[in-house]
Amino acid sequence: MYLVVTLWADLNPMEKESLEPERMDTDEVNPKSGSEKMAEHKADRKQIRERKLSALSRRELLKLTPVLALGAFAVPRFQKSLLKKGLGISDWVSARMFRTGHLAPTFGDSDVTRFEKFPINDYDVDDPGVILENWSLAVSGLVKKPGEYTLDQVQVLPLVRQNTRHVCVEGWDVIGRFGGARLSDFLSVIGADSTARFVSVKCADDYYESLDMATALHPQTLLCYEMYDRPLTREHGAPLRLNVPTKIGYKQAKYLTDLKVTNVLEKVGYWEDQGYSSFYGL
Amino acid sequence: MGSAVVEIVRVRGDETESIGRAAYEHPLIVRLCHWVNAIALFVMVGSGLQIFRAFPSFGAKIPQHDLLHWPKAFAIGGWLGGALQWHLTFMWIYMATGLIYLGYQLFSGNYRQVMFTHRDIPGAWPVVKHYFFRGPKPELGEAYNSLQKQAYTTVIILGVLSVLTGLAIWKPVQFSWLAWLMGGFHWARLWHFIVMWVMLGFVFGHLVMVILHGWNNFASMLTGWKKDPEY
């Protein structure tokens, strides 16, 4: 409110100060000869008293004090919560920007980065030693059919193959070829409550992640078991990983072991819980 | 609009003495936006360079050829996650000041004081010549000379471009058309980087000019009032 008032009042301080009386005043006190009057007419300027200008300038300077509020970012006590708030606003806006029907760009086969040049990024180990023969996905939470699901149960769902861009939070990007079942198809198989807010996953290497439901239901969000038309290699997350072209790289969790549909996230994700964006939609 | 020059007078008893001139050049909104935006730009550049440190290249990830190693001491945020927090927080402040400034300039008509138009083209070169000691100082009839208008107009365009290129990197899917216009995500990132350096070029020139033009000029961005303007 203060800002609005001062800003409007400030549009032209000259008008506000109304210098006319002052000029008349000086004219009265100091009657001028004809030639002096001629000279003044030539200049024909409004006058302002030195002291008045100083006071006016000081007041104008003081009106800049709201700028100092930014100094709160330099105070260690406030810094963390202010930045958390700022990131929260960005995430909130991001979630609103997300359009369920809008597809991420797809690319021709000639644009795809060669498989050897597709980076392998882990937070821990390249291969957490998943025993592929015994592997199953533990499904829990707000679903009608919880329990263990085998890879076959995922692979009977329609196979979707897509050449999409994988963007790392570090700044690099590659175009990869991914194949798998739509997560939305799998969610209907397990009878997930699609009004729930999140789908969270756990991984064989203790990594964990979560997706908002809108993203989980996006047609390009895959439970991915193929890259470059071949079964996932161990380094790329065998036997099952997430491929989410509408999200940043760290959301594409590998070596999935658990999937939970939930309204409450105890933890958001491995990197998110260290201060990275929770939503990070592209 | 514009800045009407007034006479500063000292009144002692019956004597009225003219001791100089002054003009109100910078409305409060402009000054507020200028300083908040200057701080925001500082944070955006500092945190942006820390983000860049995570992958200081514009080529492939494999093999990675680094473009330059930016020292951590000249970056903000300490680590990638921290820098992103600063960047994604101050971008709102940066954009808000830009939008308020542009809105005010258009609404109030104050843009006429600073916007570079075709009428300023002939006047710009003599100013350049003067700055390089190759000509006399051109007469000034208003708050800004042609070259200043050119610089201040360009930096506004750069500001808009910095937001658009940033948006293309941050949301290459939702704004895929924007990223496409820039040649894809990969190129948008490069454009974002280039726009930053051009802006820093402006900031450098701007600071040099501020130093060269002395206190009255600097103080006018604080109080709005410029004492003894050239016109």
Describe the structure.
The complex is a heterodimer of chains A (282) and B (231). Chain A is an alpha+beta fold. Helix content of chain A is 30%, strand content 21%. Chain A folds into 2 domains: 62 residues, no CATH class; 177 residues, Oxidoreductase, molybdopterin-binding domain (Sulfite Oxidase, Chain A, domain 2, Alpha-Beta Complex). A 5-stranded mixed β-sheet of chain A has the order 3-2-11-6-7. In chain A, strands 4, 5, 8, 9 and 10 form a 5-stranded antiparallel β-sheet that branches. Chain B has one domain: Fumarate Reductase Cytochrome B subunit (Up-down Bundle). Helix content of chain B is 59%, strand content 9%. The interface between A and B is large, with 68 and 62 residues.
* CATH structural fold name of the largest domain in chain A: Sulfite Oxidase, Chain A, domain 2
Main sheet makeup of chain B: 3 strands, antiparallel
What's the CATH H-level superfamily name of chain B?
Answer: Transmembrane di-heme cytochromes, Chain C
Beta content of chain B: 5-15%
Task: Give the tally of structural domains of chain A.
Answer: 2
The CATH class of the largest domain in chain A is identified as Alpha Beta
Terminal residue distance of chain B: 15 Å
Find the CATH superfamily of the largest domain in chain A.
Answer: Oxidoreductase, molybdopterin-binding domain
Second CATH tier, the architecture of chain B:
Up-down Bundle
